[in-house]
Amino acid sequence: MNTTAAHSAADIAGIRLPGGAAVEAARLVCAEYTDKALFHHSLRSYLFGAAYAQDRGLDFDEELLYVSALLHDLGLTAPFDSHTLPFEEAGGHAARLLTAGLGWPMERRDRAAEVIVLHMRDDVPAEQDVESHLLQIGTTADVSGGGLDAFAPEFTAELMRALPRAGFGAVFLDLVRDQGTRKPDCAAAGLVRGGVAERIAANPLERL
Prior knowledge:
Elements: E1 11-12, E2 15-16, H1 21-33, H2 36-56, H3 62-71, H4 87-101, H5 106-118, H6 130-144, H7 153-162, H8 168-182, H9 187-193, H10 196-202
Antiparallel strand pairs: 1-2
Helix pairs in contact: 1-3, 2-3, 2-6, 3-5, 3-6, 4-5, 5-6, 8-9
């Protein structure tokens, strides 16, 4: 458990963090159930997505994106791992449970689960679903370095200083390989077959 990785700063790398009960609950759950590598990845995924939106003037729901980003990999952790569901679907169910306790209406709970599931699916255009698009942008940049040229080098360097990778590439690769072995038809298995190991190894963030 990552019980020491709380981040109380109002902003990271110049990107403002949202506030409120849902944001704090998602951060606490992620910090409790993930290690430092996954916790920092979850935060960076939000920040990459939010920075991308900010630079392009995209209007998005900060709370929804943050909650989805902080919970999107819970299905990779032992307490939430499903032996039948893909990890992103298990994470979506975890998000629905947490947000039910926060009093979110059904439609908004469904949206959190949808954003988490869609981050592992084919690209979603911003005009169709901006939060899913931004989580895809954020996770792709952080996992494989895809689309890093969309971000200012100064932003990326500051983000890595604030939230070090802590061996994230190797940790994530082991997790998706395990998912793919046990659930060969899931999206994680597709990542492995599609050469995610090579993309992670080539990710410039792994060398920062």
